[in-house]
Design brief:
By secondary structure, the chain is of the alpha+beta class. It has two domains: about 110 residues, Immunoglobulins (Immunoglobulin-like), CATH 2.60.40.10; about 60 residues, no CATH class. Helix content is about 35%, strand content about 35%. A hairpin with an 8-residue loop joins β4 and β5. α2 packs antiparallel against α3 and α3 runs antiparallel to α4. The longest helix has 24 residues. The protein starts with 5 loop residues before the first helix and ends with a helix.
Length: about 210
């Protein structure tokens, strides 16, 4: 029986592996990162209070990716292009198919009043061709308003209660002090209310004399 040399067997196996690898389809490696979702709380807030912004990003490519995420708050009032840029955050070694949520806090102290659009952006990964989802415009912060406006409203509700109670219990004497204290809130409305109430009290006193 003729023996086949080991070298010939090795060469034959190498040739078979080479041909097989050439026939198999080659999976292309590509980078693809995306901004998947943006949530904002609260939607309306007094100026100076924080707005909490959550940004979910996803690795839609076939490579492990590290990248930086930028978040913007762009006013819906002129001048345009003066958006606030929040401190960026970095995502490290995000595996293909995985998502991650980043938590941003926007300090609204000193910003102009009004509504703002929140958006997020990721620079394109190496070799990325699908860049349409690298930028996402999120929800609108419907109102950054002056804190004193809501404070006055809350005090105004209490002022009517205090004024009414003092009128009933003291016949208008203590109500004068309450009225002076609250004149800065709604002077005309309170003045009319005080005048009507005081006039009724005076008429009642005259009737019984």
């Amino acid at each position: 029986m003729r023996k086949i040399p080991c070298l010939k067997i090795a060469l034959a196996l190498f040739a078979m592996v080479t041909v097989t690898s050439m026939l198999l389809p080659v999976t292309a490696q590509f980078g693809d990162v995306a901004v998947d979702k943006i949530t904002v709380k609260p939607a309306n807030i007094p100026r100076g209070k924080p707005v909490y912004i959550n940004v979910t990003v996803k690795n839609e490519g076939s490579l492990v990716e590290s990248f930086t995420v930028y978040v913007y708050a762009d006013g819906l009032h002129p001048p345009f292009g003066d958006e606030a840029v929040l401190p960026p955050q970095t995502v490290l070694l995000l595996a293909p198919g995985e998502s991650k949520t980043l938590y941003f806090t926007w300090d609204t102290a000193g910003i102009p009043l009004g509504a703002y659009t929140i958006s997020a952006y990721i620079p394109a990964a190496a070799g990325e061709t699908d860049t349409a989802d690298n930028f996402l415009k999120g929800p609108i912060v419907g109102g950054i308003f002056e804190p004193s406006s809501i404070t006055r409203w809350k005090l105004g509700l209490g002022s009517y209660v205090a004024l009414a109670i003092s009128m009933v219990l003291t016949g208008g004497i203590a109500a004068i002090g309450v009225f002076k204290m609250l004149m800065i809130e709604k002077p005309l409305r309170l003045l009319r209310l005080f005048a009507k109430t005081l006039a009724k009290k005076i008429n009642k006193i005259n009737i019984f004399r």
